[in-house]
Amino acid sequence: MTISILGSGTSHGVPVVGCTCPVCLSGNVKNKRTRASIAVHYKNTIILIDTATEFRLQAIREGLTKLDAIFFTHSHADHLHGLDDIRSISREKAIPMYGSKADLEEITNRFPYIFYNTVQKGGGKPQVIPHRLTGTGVKVGSIEVKPIPVKHGKLDIYGYRFNKRAAYITDCSEIPEESFPLLQNLDVLIIGALRYRSHPTHFNIEQALQVIKKISPGRAYLTHICHDLDHDQLEDELPGGVFPAYDGLKIDLHPPV
User: Fold this and answer.
1) 236-242: long-range contacts at Cβ-Cβ below 8 A with a sequence spacing of 24 or more?
2) What CATH number is associated with residue 128?
3) Which end of the chain is more exposed for a tag (fewer CB within 10 A), N or C?
């Protein structure tokens, strides 16, 4: 299994529009962060977690030519507004789309032309089939996906676990105690860590490291990173086994020996 970091940035992306801070002006490609998303590849199955704002650019960069399913963590703009750009890879076959009841309703309201036949023809539209997720999860091809309930401020959103080996949690400010058993025995954990300073709806670096220590995965990667953090400096400061993610990173999970 391979997890591709399509985007590792926060809702503004990095560089931030109009900002002249050292990170936004940096020439280091690892400081260029599009909005947060991942693709999970295993055997002949490819699933997408969130349709980030720059999905078109991410998909072209990664050479994505098909998707077997899309899973949404939540319906905030930076995790959703690339949905229209799946048009070209959903022409031949509609793509199953999974999320919570509330998020599927919000997506339908935000993109009514996708779901209702009340607009004129021309230009095409994404072909998707919405499915409400339950706690038992779903298997798509060779990938088992289990939702992990977490909190994004006051919002209930999802993280996801894949084939029992890896998990992805972004935009999280609290993991309920009942969700920690769903995160045990991980080879890889990818978790949001916005900045050093505290934030009301996101883990900061210290909080993310505390969660990583509690879960104790084989490796951990920080994502959803804002322009407060320089990649190289952060990499030097993190403890062993914890790494900053960056756009284009490939995380390989080899079969157990």
Assistant:
1) 238/209, 239/209, 242/209, 242/212
2) 3.60.15.10
3) C
